[in-house]
Amino acid sequence: MTKSIKSAIVIGATGLVGRELLNQLNRIESCQNITAVVRHEDSALKCLEKVQQFILDDFLLLNDEDVNGYSHAFSCLGTTLKKAGSKQKFHDIDYEINVHFADLFESTDTHYLLISAMGANIHSNFFYNRVKGELEKHIQSLNLQCVSILRPSLLLGERSEQRSLEDLSQKLYQKFSHLVPDSFKYKPVTAAQVAHTMVEAAQTQTEKFEIYDNLRIQNSK
């Protein structure tokens, strides 16, 4: 089941984890071709020699030909209810686009990796967690070669856009982080840790389906 990362396609490439993932993939010797699907050209990505940008205004227009031949597909795409503007728009992004992307790899030999969320559950009382749970359920129903799902807690790092609640949470965590034990399962993780876990999973996972919980991500160095 394990195989080296020879070529990769990434959605959510300009987000907090996506950028870090591209940096890490760019340093892998075996990985010669990295495609970042973006809505607008990103000048910061031009310094990564192996990364090519595929500019597409609507990710739902991605087709089988666009994603053909990649050894690994990474989805780092996600938003917040506040940024999306409504529950429907949040669902359109976090569920519909991710579902469409995953569907394209059904019955192929591509390893599919998704960033979900801690608390993802189709029965959750929280809309955000419920949507993540519905997404995971759909992914599991597909005939995919290999699937890795990551469930991080709060993500630490500098985002290109403001997320007030997350920014406040980060500041509070930084102030009291010395009181949080390493074994605390809700402990925030960095974008680098999440990206590293994705890369490790891509290279070493032997099971057809595996979930990487927050504690596991915390231990990623």
Automatic annotation (TrEMBL):
Signal peptide: none annotated. It comes from the Bacteria. Coiled coil: none annotated. It holds the Pfam family HIM1. SUPFAM superfamilies: NAD(P)-binding Rossmann-fold domains. InterPro entries: Him1/Fmp52, NAD(P)-bd_dom_sf. PANTHER family: OXIDOREDUCTASE HTATIP2. This is Nucleoside-diphosphate sugar epimerase. It comes from Acinetobacter terrestris.
